[in-house]
Amino acid sequence: MKDGPDIALTAALIGDPARANILSALMSGKALTARELSDEAGITAQTASSHLRKLLEGGLIAATAQGRHRYFTLSGAEAARLIEALMGFAAARGQLRHRTGPRDPALRAARLCYNHLAGEAGVQLYESLIARGHLMLAPDGPALTGAGTAFLHTMGIAPEGLRRKPLCRACLDWSERRSHLAGPVGQALLTRMQEMGWITRIGDSRALRFTPTGRAAFDHAFPPPG
Amino acid sequence: MKDGPDIALTAALIGDPARANILSALMSGKALTARELSDEAGITAQTASSHLRKLLEGGLIAATAQGRHRYFTLSGAEAARLIEALMGFAAARGQLRHRTGPRDPALRAARLCYNHLAGEAGVQLYESLIARGHLMLAPDGPALTGAGTAFLHTMGIAPEGLRRKPLCRACLDWSERRSHLAGPVGQALLTRMQEMGWITRIGDSRALRFTPTGRAAFDHAFPPPG
DNA sequence: CTGATGTTTCGATCAGGATCGAAGCATGAA
DNA sequence: TTCATGCTTCGATCCTGATCGAAACATCAG
């Protein structure tokens, strides 16, 4: 009956409480898994899967397959601005919700992601390797350079002995929003750092702790770029 | 489960197709009646009434009672910006709708509103009267000044003979977004201008047409301010 | 006053979609 | 390979909310 864009489709997508919770959680900029999002929204994994599919079709979010996980983020700046406009309007009308406790800061600093280093330290390692030319970003993922291979030898790692298909993989970080290094090389680096006593595990949680000397050695080996 | 504003309420409000149509129609900035909005949305008046109540409660639109009409507008810049963000997102995703024929431009230029002059000419008359001090804006509506009374006499109108309670009323314009003059004085002015041959009616529609000499006389009597 | 028009309320119907249990599929660990 | 975990699909249930007919209410014209 009217011209102009159809705003009902997108608005109805955001209008469901479960989906709105999912989008609000993604407004932190973090990449979250389907399970984490279902917890945030207070629904089961099946229901979340259905909602995530709809949000994908509506172009509001984007997904990245990552092993047996699937990481979801907002689709881009356009979507973020839209949610932000909605939040601004709702906040001006005094429509607020309850809040929950904050996340564990130790997990954000350094943690185990499967078998490699994640968190702020993981991002620092990854970006340092790229900035110093040890890692190159190819279309199909990061790849070790000659300088990178030599560097690994100085760390006591022989990349030639590693098997599995892609030696390096970029892994979306859970707390940061950027990538860190996964794959056999990432695994070998963490194992080596544990052998050298740089890093220890906190209990049986996923949190990792640097020893004082380990932290200094880590910052020397992987200086943060810039 | 989460902190932050509750965006689902507002988004669900916009998410219904009928309500989205109403909001899209109001994005023109015009003030529209409930019936006009129900036509735009393709629903009956009863259904539109229900939707309009919800939009009012949600703070997206505002209403102004006007005799037996109720004029609706977007509630303000905040709401307009929100709809605009939605339209931008939907347009980028290529979600468009069909379009209908354009409105009659003659209706926008000058038309009958009950018994007084509306459209661009109506707004010109109203604002000219105010700019020249013939009309004063009081809290309870516009009021005739002494100069205004004298001016009406030169037009051949005796406001002392007019009865009904508020001699002047501001009437939200349908095509323009501003007010024009209603009430007995507005009615008398239009009647007089028709008597003097300034204005004729086009068929039995609501559209009015100025005669060439009438247009000149009108612009002389009610020069647009500024 | 009476009649006409614009709007709202009431009541009932009905469909779309949110939800979850159970099962199926894919990936990674051992 | 086998097992565990993350995610998706299928199927069925159930409830919110959109819709409209009829009637009530308010305003204006005559």
Main attributes?
homodimer; alpha+beta; 46% helix; 11 strands; 10 helices; 2 domains; 19% strand; 226 residues; DNA-binding; two-stranded antiparallel ribbon; Arc Repressor Mutant, subunit A
Descriptive account of the structure:
The structure is a homodimer of 226-residue chains. With 226 residues, the first copy, chain A, is of the alpha+beta class. Chain A has 2 domains: 7-101, Winged helix-like DNA-binding domain superfamily/Winged helix DNA-binding domain (Arc Repressor Mutant, subunit A, Orthogonal Bundle); 106-221, no CATH class. In chain A, 46% of the residues lie in helices and 19% in strands. The first copy, chain A, has 10 helices and 11 strands. Chain A has helices at 7-15, 17-26, 34-41, 45-57, 77-92, 105-109, 120-131, 146-154, 183-195, 212-221, and strands spanning 32-33, 61-66, 69-74, 111-113, 116-118, 135-138, 141-144, 169-172, 179-182, 199-201, 208-210. A 3-stranded antiparallel β-sheet of chain A has the order 1-3-2. In chain A, strand 4 and strand 5 form a beta hairpin. In chain A, helix 3 (34-41) crosses helix 4. The longest helix of chain A is centred in the middle third of the chain and has 16 residues, at 77-92. At the A-B interface, helix 1, helix 2 and helix 5 of A face helix 1, helix 2 and helix 5 of B. The first copy, chain A, binds a DNA duplex (30 and 30 nucleotides) through residues 16, 18, 33-35, 43-53, 67-70, 114-115.
